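Quick one, C-alpha cells below:
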C-alpha cells in the first residue's frame, strides 16, 4: 500500500469515527502520518481535556484506523 493509499484509508476511518465525536461536541483531524506507521491526530472541541479521550483514542480511533490500514502501529493525539 502506498503512503497516499494509507492516508486515504486513515481519512476513511476518521470519517467513520467523526459522527460519534460530533455527538459529544467534539471532532478529530489528521495531523500527520509518519513512516506509514504512526498516525498523529488532534482531538478538538469537547474532546480536548476530556478524561476519557485517551481511552477513546486507543479503543475507538486506533482500532478503526487499523481496520482500514493494518500497517498503522500507533495513533497519538498531539492536542
Amino acid at each position: 500500500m502506498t503512503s497516499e493509499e494509507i492516508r486515504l484509508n486513515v481519512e476513511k476511518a476518521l470519517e467513520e469515527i467523526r459522527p460519534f465525536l460530533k455527538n459529544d461536541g467534539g471532532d478529530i483531524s489528521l495531523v500527520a502520518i509518519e513512516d506509514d506507521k504512526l498516525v498523529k491526530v488532534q482531538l478538538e472541541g469537547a474532546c480536548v481535556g476530556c478524561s476519557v479521550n485517551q481511552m477513546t483514542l486507543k479503543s475507538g480511533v486506533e482500532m478503526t484506523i487499523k481496520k482500514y490500514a493494518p500497517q498503522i502501529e500507533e495513533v497519538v493525539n498531539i492536542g
